[in-house]
Amino acid sequence: SLMQPPSLNEEQAKLNSALTEVIGENFRLHYPSTGGTNSAFIFYDLDDDGEEEAITFYSVNDDNIRINILEKNGENWVSIYEAAGASGEVEDVRFIETAEDEHCLAVKWDQEVGVYRFENQRLETLYSAPCDGMSIVDINDDGYDDIMTFSGGYIGRYSAALLFHSEEGLTATDSVNISTPYSGIMMSQKGLLLEGKPAYFVDSEIYEGIYLTEVFTVKDGRLRRETLANYLPKEAKEDNEAGSVIVISKYGKRGIYARNTAVCCADIDDDGIIEMPVEYREEAATSDNTDIFFIDYIKCGETKEESHSVCFGFAGKDRETESQRD
Questions:
Q1: In this predicted model, what pLDDT tens digit does every residue of 112-171 receive, in sequence order?
Q2: Based on C-alpha coordinates, what's the Rg of the chain?
Q3: SS3 string of the chain?
Q4: Smallest Cα–Cα separation from 189: which of 170, 158, 205, 213?
Q5: Maximum CA extent, the chain
Q6: Contact (CB, 8 A) for 306 and 298
Q7: Average pLDDT over all residues of the chain
């Protein structure tokens, strides 16, 4: 049988009726396609008055999507505000705390992100920019939500920027170049560098079979992007140039540090500090002299410190796991 849209419960039916009174019957509700919200009506106390409002997205005659906000009046709902949204579909909806007692609505549209504040029964746009994907993370440990945005997928120049809380309010950093589109990200997580500095770790496949870790930190209101090139000690780089064990793969003119193994950062010893994978190469005693690649996880910061090693051996095109140890 054909799939049908979810049926409306009693409360949603009242909301649907309130919308019909304002915009007529010829409208289509839109559901966020990703994230944890899968309802056409999303409930949240936008203005901190102790009562939840209902937020919904709709279109009329397949025009651009609009946002409508409704509030409870007795047993029924009434529409109190509506505004134009953006082109394309709604992908994700998040509620974030950007300052003390200030909650915002972050919407990932098809090709952009919008951040809105509901105040005095009006929806104010705080930020809008092209965006392929977003992540909500308190990257600088100030207790407020930050938004990492990733863009450039449509033009092939990939970048990241950060929206964070400052004395001036919600502030956007300058963008930094990154090595992959948002679709290439395998895993992202917040953790600590060796000195206890908070950071955001992103593991991606930058080319087919080539993987990279990028580390994002904030200093003096600026977003910084770093890779293993910024953390490995000088002698390790010199040893590699002499043909020693550390594999520091270089692709393109920027000399980014990558690996051939699809493994991600991890807190190996549960101390809050994220270990980053470094790839090693050893010659194998095989008939075709195939190299075997090993992964060591290391703590990174201003100095390099070896952590518990977790080693994977890969030989040949299939790269079957041959060994693993603590």
A1: 999 999 988 899 999 999 999 999 999 989 899 999 999 997 788 899 999 998 888 889
A2: 24
A3: CCCCCCCCCHHHHHHHHHHHHHHCCCCEEECCCCCCCCCCEEEECCCCCCCCEEEEEEECCCCCCEEEEEEEECCEEEEEEEEECCCCCEEEEEEEEEECCEEEEEEEECCEEEEEEEECCEEEEEEEEECCEEEEECCCCCCCCEEEEEECCCCCCCEEEEEEEECCEEEECCCEECCCCHHHEEEEEEEECCCCCEEEEEEEEEECCEEEEEEEEEECCEEEEECHHHCCCHHHHHHHHCCCCECCECCCCCCCCEECCCCCCECCCCCCECEEEEEEEEECCCCCCCEEEEEEEEECCCCCEECCCCCCCEECCCCCCCCCCC
A4: 213
A5: 81
A6: yes
A7: 80
Q: How far apart (Å, rounded) are the C-alpha atoms in residues 320 and 310?
A: 15
Distance of CA 64 to the CA centre of its chain: 25
- In whole angstroms, give the CA distance from residue 190 to residue 216: 9
Residue 234: is its pLDDT beyond 90? no
> Is-contact 253 259, C-beta < 8 A?
no
Q: What is the pLDDT of residue 224?
A: 94
d(CA 295, CA 150): 28
CA–CA separation, 133 and 112 (whole Å): 8
β-strands 133-137, 122-130: how paired?
Answer: unpaired
- Residue keyed to tokens 């996880």: 297
* Type of residue numbered 65: I
